[in-house]
Amino acid sequence: MKIFLTGGTGFIGSNFINLTHGKSIEIICLKRKKSLCRVKLSKEPKWCEGDLSDNWTNELKKSDIFIHLAAEGISNDPGYDRLIDTNISKPTNLLLSAIDSGIKKIIIVGTYWEYGYSAKKYKFIPTDAPLIPTNGYAATKAAFFIIANQIAVEHNIKLHYLRVGQVFGKGESSDRLWPSLQKAAANGDDFCLTSGEQIRDFTPVKFVAQKILEYLDFDNISNGCPKITNIGTGKHQTLKEFASFWWKKWEAKGKLHFGSKTYRDNEIIRYVPKID
């Protein structure tokens, strides 16, 4: 099996690459120049340096499956011009190029945040919930999902769209909750948080990578009938419970100060997608 992968140096991508080693899987991985992997790889894939907008026809023709993980705006807001270019325009053209090159099996990784305000309507958000995103990143991911879904129908290909949410673990961006908490614990510092009432399905990155690996068989997915799957543990807890668990596990000497930070604008307290 040969896979053309975007976002392979990223958080989820690099963990996924490590899981494929020792299996009959060859990965052709697109990366930007000077881009470094978030985690150390036990074996290097075949790297192709360049941009999503470059011509990758030769590499795509050698591949059986196209997996798209690359995205922008997860931890920062680069503005709508870049979000639309990176999250919609370029991946749309690359998806069409993959199909033109003969690839019939596609996996695209999206985000829970595409559901946005629908989280307030459901105790457990189903995959067919309305997409009402609350920020530019989620809005452009939702737009690309709609486009990719239509392309899959028109071209009669197999598309599995995976939505992931509160993913944490090794290789996560240093400004995110879990790495920041870990750093404070290691340094013996106190750590300031909101009241911690947010309810999430906190999902280990290796769990997500394993699910992507399992879905490479495309069981129960028909041509022209895209499938959407929420990826998560099926368990939910408050941010306070999550932070307190890891603080205790790391035997941190500092203190957690809940309530010392205010919630973000448009903060949704309960955000728990339904896991089949």
Structural account:
The protein starts with a strand and ends in a 5-residue tail after the last strand. Helix 3 links the parallel strand 4 and strand 5 (105-111). It is built from seven helices and 14 strands. The chain has helices at 11-20, 57-61, 80-100, 136-155, 177-187, 205-214, 239-249, and strands at 2-6, 26-31, 46-49, 65-68, 105-111, 158-164, 167-168, 191-193, 199-200, 203-204, 227-230, 237-238, 256-258, 270-271.
Overview in brief:
With 276 residues, the chain is of the alpha/beta class.
Broad structural category: alpha/beta
What strand order characterises the main sheet?
A: 3-2-1-4-5-6-11
**Gyration radius, rounded:** 19 Å
Number of helices: 7
Fraction of residues in β-strands: 15-25%
What is the average per-residue confidence, as pLDDT, rounded to a whole number? Answer: 96
What gross morphology would you assign? Answer: globular
Largest sheet: 7 strands, parallel
Uncertain residue ranges: none
Distance between the termini: 27 Å
**Helices and strands, in N-to-C order?**
EHEEHEHEHEEHEEEHEEHEE
Strand count: 14
Helix content: 25-40%
Supply database-style keywords.
7-stranded parallel sheet; 32% helix; 3-stranded mixed sheet; 7 helices; 276 residues; alpha/beta
Topology overview:
Elements: E1 2-6, H1 11-20, E2 26-31, E3 46-49, H2 57-61, E4 65-68, H3 80-100, E5 105-111, H4 136-155, E6 158-164, E7 167-168, H5 177-187, E8 191-193, E9 199-200, E10 203-204, H6 205-214, E11 227-230, E12 237-238, H7 239-249, E13 256-258, E14 270-271
Parallel strand pairs: 1-2, 1-4, 2-3, 4-5, 5-6, 6-11, 7-10, 8-13, 9-14
Antiparallel strand pairs: 9-12
Helix pairs in contact: 1-6, 3-4
